[in-house]
Amino acid sequence: MTGGGTGLHGRLRRLLGVMVxxxxxxxxAVGCGGSDEGSSGDGxxxxxxxxxxxxxxxAGSFDKLMTEFTTQNPTIKVKLLSGPYASTKQQxxxxxxxxxxxxxxxxxxxxxxxxxxxxxxxxxxALMADAKYDSSxxxxxxxxxxxxxxxxVVNFVYPMFVNNDLLTKAGVSAPPxxxxxxxxxxxxxxxxxxNVKGWALPxxxxxxxxxxxxxxxxxxxxxxxxxxxxxxxxxxAQVKSTVEYVKSLNDAGVIAPGSLTMKEQDKVEKFTxxxxxxxxxxxxxxxxxxxxxxxxxxxxxxxxxxxxYTGKRGIPYxxxxxxxxxxxxxKAEAFKLVQFLMSEQTNAQLSTLANGFPGNKTAEPDFSxxxxxFKTAFDIYQAGTPAxxxxxxxxxxxxxxxxxxxxxxxxxxxxxxDEALTKSQQAWASEF
Amino acid sequence: MEPAKLDHAARPRAxxxxxxxxxxxxxxxxxxxxxxxxxxxxxxxxxxxxFVLMVIPIAMVVSYSFKDNVIVEQNPVFAxxxxxxxxxTDPDFLAALKNTFIFITVSTxxxxxxxxxxxxxxxxxxxxxxxxxIFRIVYILxxxxxxxxxxxxxxxxLDPSGVVNYILTTVGGMQEGVNWLSDPSTALxxxxxxxxxxxxxxxxxxILAGLQGISPDLYEAASVDGANSFQQFRNVTIPQLRPVxxxxxxxxxxxxxxQFALIWMTTGGGPLNVTEMLSxxxxxxxxxxxxxxxxxxxxxxxxxxxxxxxxxxxxxxxxR
Lengths: 432, 320
Prior knowledge:
The structure holds two protein chains of two kinds. By secondary structure, chain A is α/β, with parallel strands linked by helices. Chain A has helices at residues 2-32, 61-72, 85-97, 109-118, 124-130, 164-169, 179-190, 210-221, 237-251, 264-272, 286-292, 331-342, 344-354, 372-383, 396-411, 417-431; strands spanning 45-51, 76-82, 104-107, 142-144, 147-157, 160-163, 197-199, 227-228, 231-232, 276-280, 298-301, 314-324, 357-358, 385-387. In chain A, strands 1, 2, 3, 4, 5, 12, 13 and 14 form an eight-stranded mixed sheet that branches. In chain A, β4 (142-144) and β5 form a beta hairpin. The longest helix of chain A has 31 residues, at 2-32. Chain B starts with a helix and ends with a helix. Chain B has one domain (88-319): MetI-like fold (Orthogonal Bundle). Chain B has a two-stranded antiparallel sheet with strand order 1-2. Chain B has helices at residues 2-20, 26-64, 82-88, 91-123, 129-144, 147-157, 163-170, 187-212, 216-224, 229-257, 261-266, 278-287, 292-319, and strands at 67-68, 77-78. The longest helix of chain B has 39 residues, at 26-64. The A-B interface holds A 13, 16-17, 20-21, 23-24, 27, 89-90, 93, 97, 114, 117-119, 195, 203-207, 256-263, 266, 275, 395, 397-398, 401, 405, 408-409, 412, 414 and B 38, 41-42, 44-45, 48, 71-74, 155, 159-161, 177, 179, 181-184, 187, 264-273, 280, 284, 286-290, 292.
């Protein structure tokens, strides 16, 4: 018995030993692998493309575009790495830090400066020159120190959304066009009582883009600027007038409660459920609002400007931008994918699918089957000028957050508007 | 002359020992040494995983904390303790430290009290089996939800126009609702309440298991000695549960200090930084300010603070 047991024990030990050795060899193989990542023996290149776009488009539509690209370029395959915006950002920040970014990356203009500074994304000016690409067809390019690092593929504008029923009920016949009209309309809507307020202002500091979309949009709509010669200029008269106006709305009690930790989705939810009369929001939410409340009657209008302002109105926008990883071994192939997405036909197709406006000047989105509000918004977009001064700034999210914190102190009466702007100016200056 | 004498004396001893010890055959010695490595072979997959997934990342974070402009610059320079000085003198970090202390202390104490109260209720012979089963399911529900669901549920309930304010203004007699998560005076307490709600069932289940392990003989003996219910609770229940309670409390302090998702999804550290914790502070430093060096220094400080708690936990376990 003992002898038999020992034999079995020995065999088990040998078997385990073999398994351990195999595990170690496997681990070593994994560790040493990937020296020629993305290439296969037959010369086919597989590009990794990380973006948050596919989940926001109709199911399967982005995969179809990629199949079309592969048909046109049989030696290039595309592996989509899709996720929500926030997780894509986190993934890209980590990838940029470890120099393991996917070959092609979806970018937000707010990230470009930092990624470029890290050397994580490639200079597209050089890639365009290598590919003899005609960049005159591009509506815009995001540059850092004179070099292009991001090309906006689709743009989403942020007009003012107006709840027609609430405004009519409050005795306001047309969407407000000036700041005075807006304050008056917001007061009348708030006077309706219940949980209804005139406006929603999301100031959550976790994702502080409310500063860009809901605060600075008032400044840009009146032709103002928060920069001077590329440097922060937050103490100028126009910025002060904007912040004082936002504070006057707060003091008048027309802003939906809970704004200090309100998130963008809360703002959309409150508008959808008829709790606020007016919001500044992305066009991309039209479909969502209509899906969640098909009976809601609303329209889009330009953001009100200062009384007496007659110039072109700036309209905030956000982009689905595209860039190429500097660490990519297949930059030429990666740029072919960029070219494909920026081509007149594909760009128009993608813009139509995304309910956005094309990054290629010659592309024309098809509004024939879209909601008529997109056509209205396109007219507002063409009459005004796209404005987003945070694009390309260093640590732009941090800039928004520091401004947000100072604004919150001003709104809660813990400091004056002047103090808030002076402190924000100091904080921003140190980042520049 | 002395050393020569010693040498001379040593040699015969060695010579005397050698013949008594049979020389091991060369093959057997090799087998013995090979067999000596076998246990390490078995441990190697785990050791490799621990090394790759724990030792290397921790070592990297520690090394980052001593460099300047790490990650964002191609060639970061050694900065000594500058990052630690910067973090420890940052008012936001000190506020986060204070908030974290309040958050984890209040959460842990409340978890213990609520967990003990509900566990005793579920252990009482006054309730029938079916009633206990129903209560057990109801009480454990908060623990089954994911953090994202908990955050969404409570954001909706604590919304200024949410159900909590509705009840308070209609039934509770309040004139107007409270901005629970966006008012600087209530946000930290509201967040702590959510964390208490989400975490007490784990305490309840663990303490219930401890209560069921207490011998009825002890209560019988106490009863014979004339002890009333409170005296039995103080002199039998608490001493018997002490090891469980202390272990759970230390573990909860560690877990709660690492809470991030709930804070991020409810208040994001606001309003006015009143719910900023060490976890959110570190995250913002890394992923918003791109200050990976100060983020690493902050993370190392958190690691050290957690290790103090871990040290007490391990010592308690050894004592047991």
